[in-house]
Amino acid sequence: MDRYYSLAGQVLAGNPATASDALEILSSPDEDLTAVVAAAARLRRAHFGNLVKINYLVNLKSGLCPEDCSYCSQRLGSEAEILKYPWLPRDEAKRQAEFGLAGGASRVCLVASGRGPSNRDVERVSGMVEEIKAATPSVEVCACLGFLKEGQAHRLKEAGVDAYNHNLNTAESHYSDICSTHTFADRVDTVDQARAAGLSPCSGLIVGMGETNEQIIEAIESLRQVDSDSIPVNFLIPFDGTPLEGTYTLTPQHCLRILCAVRFLCPDRELRIAGGREMHLRSLQPMSLHVANSLFLGDYLTSEGQAAEEDLDMIVDGGFEIVGTDNARQLRDRLKAHRVAHQAALGVAQTPDTSVSTLPCGKQVPAVGAEHAGAEITIPMIRRRGAGTAVSPNA
Fold first, then answer.
1. CA torsion, points 48, 336, 296, 58, in degrees to nearest 10?
2. pLDDT class of 343 with cuts at 50, 70, 90
3. Tell me, what's the pLDDT at 325?
4. Rounded to the nearest 5°, which phi and psi values hold at 53?
5. Residue 91: which H helix or E strand, with range?
6. What SS3 state is found at 26?
7. 335 vs 47: CA distance, rounded Å
8. Torsion on CA atoms 237, 242, 247, 253, rounded to nearest 10
9. Residue 6 in contact with residue 259, Cβ under 8 Å?
């Protein structure tokens, strides 16, 4: 166990961790897990102190993507019963972003399905960004619009976009197993275009798609090579109606080891626990914040996340503060009080509804976040609130 502590010391002294070190972390036994996390926490604290950065997703356009990424509920041929809608109006995009900002987000991520934007789409998003920035100048905006054409990254930068998200998703050696309509090199090219235009590259990975430990490390090393400033780690959400439906290969312990491997190989980069964290990290989510320094608040693009108040509880109870907020506890308490007052005004019961609900795919499951009886898994809940609906978002 002293090995991990010593390795962290070496990294802090300027000697980068190697692929062999990362493989040792991924292969470590469960009894070493707390030692591995404690060592990774040294690196997290050295670079980010006790701060957590909150990010908030706004799905500007949902579904009907022509790409065939096997993990994605919005893919070509997907039978997942997700929300499908065209571009949000500019004022609605701004309104949705403001929900996240009120919940403590310092970065808003504007996402649209599709292979990539037309120049008209870029102008549409640029107008949204300009309006959001005019109302809240301090907010960071990250765009995620797919593959970029020449000049589009520069236009987004001109409009005030701070970062561009385009995940590498997995190792190059594994890429053809998850997608046939584009290549790993195509994804690298868009990350390179974003960086060249002065946008902060945000690029991460998805785990749980049948990759080996060696391929996880290969993907992380590729993220180092593209110089990703911000690394979201997504844990596969195996939607029914996609090729990877029913794929549950991750354990909470291994998810933590993956985060630790990223932290050791990319010690000074923003590391975000992203989609699927509730499902796969489960009760170890609070421990993961001692390794990661960033998360998405509330819901994701097409699936629901845990209650935003639970995200804030996790931050406050862990002794963390929120980037851009003076007092995380006061923010959390204010949000809870606002929610109670809003529910009272609408005559809504304050206790959560624990009755059994039916997913669009037809499975009978307990309420959001509960485990599917007998299978020790959590079935994804399709998002039915927030952007594209008349229901308030989870923020």
1. -130
2. confident
3. 94
4. -95, 125
5. helix 90-102
6. helix
7. 29
8. -20
9. no
At 22, list the tokens: 């990362």
Other Cβ atoms less than 10 A from the Cβ of 28: the count is: 20
Q: Tens of pLDDT along 271-326?
A: 999 999 999 999 999 999 999 999 999 999 999 999 999 999 999 999 999 999 99
Q: How many CA atoms lie within 13 A of 374 on its CB side?
A: 2
- The separation between the first and the last C-alpha atoms of the chain, rounded to the nearest angstrom, is 39
Rg (CA), the chain: 20
Per-residue pLDDT, averaged over 211-230, amounts to: 98
**Segment among 20-24, 115-119, 268-272, 332-336 with least mean pLDDT:** 332-336
**C-alpha–C-alpha distance, residues 105 and 395, integer Å:** 9
- Rounded Cα distance between 119 and 383, Å, is 29
Report how far residue 140's alpha carbon sits from residue 296's, in angstroms, rounded to the nearest whole number. 14
Give me the mean pLDDT over the 207-231 stretch: 98
Axis-axis angle for helices 252-265, 33-48 (nearest 10): 40
pLDDT of residue 376: 55
Rounded CA-CA distance 234/265 in Å is 17
Pairing of strands 270-273, 364-365: unpaired
Using CA atoms, how far residue 298 sits from 126, 184, 333, 362, in Å, is: 25, 30, 16, 24
Instruction: Give, in order, the Cα–Cα distances in Å from 4 to each of 12, 25, 190, 360.
Output: 12, 8, 35, 45
Instruction: Grade residue 378 by pLDDT with cuts at 50, 70 and 90.
Output: low
pLDDT at residue number 358: 39
Length of the chain in terms of residues written: 395
Angle formed by the axes of helices 119-135 and 152-159, nearest 10°? 20
Specify the DSSP element, H or E, that contains 142.
strand 140-144
pLDDT above 50 (res 204): yes
- pLDDT-wise least confident of 116-125, 224-233, 347-356: 347-356
For residue 322, give the H/E element and its range. strand 321-322
